[in-house]
Design goal:
Strand content: under 5%
Distance between the termini: 27 Å
Largest sheet: none
Number of strands: 0
Order of helices and strands: HHHHHHHHHHHH
Radius of gyration: 21 Å
Helix content: 55-70%
Length: 363
């Protein structure tokens, strides 16, 4: 563990802009992904990595970046015990919010059905799938990496590799079969092991940026890009270990190719997918470091979404419920674009209103 880990003393513009871009991407792909006319790269897939599938790992990358920043700051201001208490409280808050948004599995319309379920049946059935989505995954992954969040880069890299190896081992043993048969969402309960990959990469990116003064952060870009290429190459290389050369990322697999331990899959939270996506996140973030921290370029839209990302996450599905019923899956492209602009505009106006009134949803 580093003796005196450093933290950035000023707000890092590139993080807010990167997070805002990621929120905008989420709003885009979550709304239009169900339409037949939309390009396959803008849809979520379970058998390869599309553009849509890179969005969630970018959230975890940003979470890791901000987690290390805030944790190091709290270590120096309030001490370890209080810093850890804040992490636990935040995780609990995210889990409770996730419970409200995602709900538990199952629905019981009569008292007799509920009695027949019993307590053991409740434990066996209620937590299999729906609850373990983005917010809950973020909470659990944060707890998982808490032991090393203030540690040296070497320790965090070792922890990342061990987490990935555990996920691979458990998937080989039983979890891959379970994940596909259930089917789980976003990796399910063991997803914390692989979602730790982009999260810990985010902590390493923070180190590269925070080690430099505000006007020198652009010097971190070359190393960020080099490591992004390394991670993407490793992720793709892992996807080829199934016995034949895998299709390149962002390309559908060959017809008849079977899903295996090495397939890039957001459903299973596979190690190949999250290693590649961590590298992709690093490349995208490097671009924002160059634009925002080095050249001073910022986009108001990304600022609005990036500084109130949790509010945007909570609000956008409610807006979708209001607009989506009037957007059939087989609608023509012009109508899909028009519907999206209405939906996106409402989301932006609501989040912008919160920003103008200095109302921020944070946990």
């Amino acid at each position: 563990m580093s003796a005196e880990p450093s933290f950035a003393k000023s707000r890092i513009a590139s993080l807010d802009q990167f997070r805002g871009y990621t929120v905008a991407g989420m709003i885009l792909v979550n709304f239009i992904g169900g339409n037949q006319v939309v390009h396959h790269l803008l849809k979520h897939h379970n058998t390869y990595c599309s553009y849509a599938d890179t969005i969630m790992p970018q959230f975890f990358f940003a979470v890791g970046f901000a987690f290390r920043l805030t944790y190091l700051r709290r270590l120096q201001t309030v001490g370890r015990a209080e810093a850890q208490r804040a992490v636990a409280a935040r995780a609990l808050g995210l889990i409770l919010l996730g419970f409200v948004m995602y709900h538990l599995d199952g629905e019981y319309k009569t008292w007799e059905e509920l009695k027949q379920l019993g307590f053991q049946g409740f434990l066996a059935n209620a937590f299999r799938r729906e609850l373990c989505q983005t917010l809950v995954q973020i909470a659990l992954t944060s707890i998982w990496i808490l032991p090393v969040i203030a540690a040296s880069a070497r320790v965090r890299v070792v922890y990342l590799v061990v987490s990935a190896a555990l996920h691979l081992g458990l998937s080989w043993w039983f979890y891959l079969d379970y994940a596909w048969k259930t089917p789980v969402i976003d990796g399910g309960w063991l997803g914390i092991l692989s979602w730790a990959i982009p999260t810990l990469v985010g902590t390493l990116a923070y180190d590269a940026v925070a080690a430099r003064d505000d006007h020198e952060r652009g010097r971190a870009v070359p190393s960020l890009l080099v490591w992004s290429v390394v991670l993407m190459a490793v992720g793709y290389g892992l996807s080829c270990l199934g016995g034949e050369l895998a299709a390149p990322p962002f390309s559908p697999p060959a017809a008849g190719r079977q899903v295996d331990l090495w397939t890039m899959s957001q459903r299973t939270g596979s190690v190949s997918y999250l290693t590649f996506s961590a590298g992709f996140s690093l490349a995208v973030y490097a671009l924002f470091v160059l634009l925002c921290d080095q050249w001073g370029v910022t986009v108001g839209l990304f600022r609005t979404f990036g500084t109130n990302a949790l509010a945007a996450y909570v609000i956008h599905p409610m807006v979708s419920l209001a607009v989506r019923p009037y957007l059939p899956d087989d609608a023509p492209l012009w109508y899909v674009i028009a519907g999206f602009l209405v939906y996106f505009g409402i989301c932006y106006l609501l989040i912008r209103y919160l920003e103008k009134n200095k109302l921020y949803l944070k946990l």
